Amino acid sequence: MDEETQSTMAAVGPRLKGLRTHRSLSLTALAEATGISLSTLSRLESGQRRPTLELLLPLARELRVDIGQLIGAPQTGDPRLHLQPITRHGMTMLPLTRRAGSLQAQVDISFPTCLIR
Predict the structure, then answer these.
(1) At what angle do helices 53-63 and 27-34 cross, to 10 degrees?
(2) Which of 2, 27, 89, 115 is 20 to 30 Å from 43 by CA-CA measure?
């Protein structure tokens, strides 16, 4: 296992404990809600047990977080396009695509038609 993976795995326990305590849940309450034994949860939080998908899924569900929060996955950002209107020749257009290729789609805001170039 590489160093980055080891570091990610080691950080799950403190994140789990932080989320649990933030929600004022005891280890016992979380164990009962997830069906995971008290000793397994305790060992996960202390880093003595490796997290598995089988353990992380019910924990994420019960703590109402994305599994990425438990493992410290990087934020992906907003996937939506936030493009600015363009004014040319008296027309204001809103691009529907980025200028990546030769085909572009735009909407004329003043006259709602779609132009494909």
Answers:
(1) 110
(2) 2
Q: What secondary structure letter does DSSP report for 92?
A: E
- 71's CB contacts (< 8 A; 6+ apart) are 8, 11, 12, 15, 51, 56
Helices then strands, counting H and E runs in the chain, come out as: 5, 4
What is the rounded distance in angstroms from the CA atom of residue 9 to the CA atom of residue 20?
Answer: 18
C-alpha distances (whole Å) from 106 to each of 2, 79, 111, 117 are 47, 19, 12, 8
31 close to 38: Cβ distance less than 8 angstroms:
yes
Chain CA centroid to CA 41, Å: 23
Q: What is the pLDDT of residues 46-85, one digit of tens each?
A: 999 999 999 999 999 999 998 888 888 776 666 666 667 7
